[in-house]
């Protein structure tokens, strides 16, 4: 699995519950841009359309492919997520609960050469939770440093 783009802010801003793997309906130049690693999902979000039964990735940035036709390349177009009906129903049910949302986590290539996106059901953190996360991260980093810097004498 080769990660192309990761939304690291999602792990800081949300408590992540269930994760799902979805395919992306892309155009040819978007696949070539993804192969070059020119994808950003930090500002993107997931929108559910319950009437049509579709899930969309909105505001994801796929850089224009240099050798493609520039006039036809929409870099921030809406892209449909490809999921099974049971997964879509589970996501829709979870997102209807107050306080829950669906966020994109990372875009990656599978071993079989398919482009996938990891999405998660999430609940927003408040300021106190974010400070606690920072404190835990600092303590873990200090503990790791002390373990690696300690020299044992046999």
Description:
- The protein has 154 residues and is an alpha+beta fold.
- The chain has one domain (2-125): Small Protein B, Chain: A.
- Helix content is 31%, strand content 35%.
- The termini are far apart.
- The mean pLDDT is 87.
Short description:
The chain is of the alpha+beta class and 154 residues long. It contains 4 helices and 9 strands; from the N terminus they run βαβαβββββαββα.
Helix vs. strand class: alpha+beta
Assembly context of the chains? single chain
CATH class: Mainly Beta
- Radius of gyration over C-alpha positions, nearest whole angstrom: 19 Å
- What fraction of the residues are assigned to beta strands by DSSP? 35-45%
Q: Using the 3D structure, state the CATH architecture.
A: Beta Barrel
Instruction: Give the SSE order as H and E letters.
Output: EHEHEEEEEHEEH
Overview features:
7-stranded antiparallel sheet, alpha+beta, single chain, 9 strands, Small Protein B, Chain: A, 154 residues
């Amino acid at each position: 699995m080769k990660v192309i783009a990761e939304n690291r802010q999602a792990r800081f801003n949300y408590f992540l519950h269930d994760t799902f793997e979805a395919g992306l309906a892309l155009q040819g130049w978007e696949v070539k841009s993804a192969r070059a690693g020119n994808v950003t999902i930090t500002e993107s979000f997931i929108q559910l359309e319950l009437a049509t039964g579709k899930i969309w990735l909105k505001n994801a940035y796929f850089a224009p492919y240099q050798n493609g036709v520039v006039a036809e390349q929409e870099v921030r177009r809406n892209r449909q997520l490809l999921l099974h009906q049971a997964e879509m129903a589970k996501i829709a049910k979870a997102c209807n609960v107050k306080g829950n949302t669906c966020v994109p986590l990372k875009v990656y290539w599978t071993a079989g050469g398919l482009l996938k996106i990891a999405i998660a059901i999430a609940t927003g953190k408040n300021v106190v939770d974010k400070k606690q996360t920072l404190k835990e991260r600092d303590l873990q980093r200090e503990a790791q440093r002390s373990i690696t810097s300690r020299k044992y004498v046999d």
